[in-house]
Amino acid sequence: MTVTIKSEREIELMREAGRLLGRVHEELAGIIRPGISTKDIDRVCEEIIRSYGCTPNFLHYQGYPASVCVSVNEEVVHGIPREDHILKEGDIVSLDTGLIYQGYHSDAARTHAVGQISAEAQKLMDVTKQSFFEGIKMARAGMHLHDISNAIAAYVTPFGYGIVRDLVGHGIGTHLHEPPHIPNYAVRRRGIRLRPGMTLAIEPMINMGTGDVEWLDDDWTVISADHSLSAHYENTVLITEGEPEILTLMS
Ligand code: MF3
Ligand code: CO
Predict the structure, then answer these.
(1) Residue 35 in domain
(2) Distance between Cα 73 and ligand 1 center (Å)
(3) Which of 5, 47, 138, 231 counts the most CB atoms within 10 A of its CB?
(4) What integer pLDDT is reported at residue 78 of this predicted model?
(5) From CA 92, how far away is CA 74, in angstroms rounded?
(6) Strand, coil or helix: what is 21?
C-alpha cells in the first residue's frame, strides 16, 4: 500500500474525525485526578466517543481490549485500563485514543499530570509536546518525511532524554495505521516527499532515561527498559499547500 492522498471530500471527513477527537481529549483532561482508576478513564472515553455517533478505533484492534491506552509513569504506550490501577498524586499519565467518523480515523495522545508532579516530570512532558511542534514545522509540501523525524530528534536529544525507536508515527485515513512509518529519531535518508492531502499521525514517545523499551506479559503494555518516566504526545496532521493543519487540536 502506498501513501494515500486524500480528496477534498475525504479531508472534510478527516477534519471532523479530528475535531471530535480533540473534544474527547478536552473532556478526558477534566477527569484526571488522584483516585480515578485507569478503567474509569476507559469507560468515560468510550461513552464520549459513542455519544458523538463515532466508533472507538482502538477497541478490538488486533485484540486490544479498550478504547483508550492509559500508560502511567514508566509505561510508554498501550497500557491496558484496569479497575485496580488507581492514579495517584505525582503520576504522569498518557492517554492515547482515536475514533472513526464516517469511515475515517483520527488518533491523538496527551500526557497529563496527576495532581502535583515533580519539576523533572513536567519538563519531560513539556519537551515531548514541544518536540511534536518542532517536527510539524517540517510537515509541509515539498519537505521530506524524515525532515519531521530529524527535527524531533534534534530538539529532544540535547535534553539527554531517550527517544523510543521501537514504535513510530504513521499515516492514517480509512485505516488507523497506513504507510508511511514516521520515526521520531534521526534518519539519514530523506524519506518520501510530503504532498498536500497526506494525513499523518505524528507521535513522539520520549523517556527520561534511555529509549529502550520492553513489553509486559500482557503483550501490550510497553515500558521503558530502565523504568524511567515516559511521555507521549500525538496529533493527526494534514499536509496542505501551506501551514500543516493539526486536525485533533481544539482551537
Ligand atoms: N495510537 C496507537 C498507535 O498509533 C494505537 C494503539 S492501537 C491499540 O500505535 F490497539 F493499542 F489501541
Ligand atoms: Co498513533
Answers:
(1) yes
(2) 18
(3) 231
(4) 98
(5) 9
(6) helix
What CATH number is given to the structural domain containing 160?
3.90.230.10
Q: Is residue 2 part of a domain?
A: no
Tell whether ligand 1 has an atom less than 6 A from the beta carbon of residue 232: no
> Cβ(107) to ligand 1 under 6 A?
yes
Cut 0.90: pTM above it? yes
* Residue range(s) defining the domain that contains residue 23: 8-246
Query: Residue range 15-23: average pLDDT?
Result: 98
* Closest CA to ligand 1's atom 8: 58
Q: Kindly state whether residue 113 falls inside one of the protein's structural domains.
A: yes
Predicted confidence at residue 251, as pLDDT, reads: 58
- How many domains, the chain? 1
Measure the CA–CA gap between 146 and 143, rounded to whole angstroms. 9
Q: Is the CB of 64 under 6 A from ligand 1?
A: yes
Tell me the percentage of the chain whose pLDDT exceeds 90.
Answer: 98
Distance 21 CA to ligand 2 centre (A): 13
Q: State how far the Cα of 70 lies from the Cα of 77, in Å rounded to an integer.
A: 7
Tell me how far apart the alpha carbons of residues 139 and 141 are, in angstroms, rounded to a whole number.
Answer: 7
Residue 69, ligand 1, Cβ within 6 A: yes
194 domain residue, yes or no = yes
Using the mean position of ligand 1's atoms as its centre, give its distance from the Cα of residue 78 in Å.
7
Give residue 36's Cα distance to chain centre: 22
For ligand 1, whether the C-beta of 78 sits within 6 Å is yes
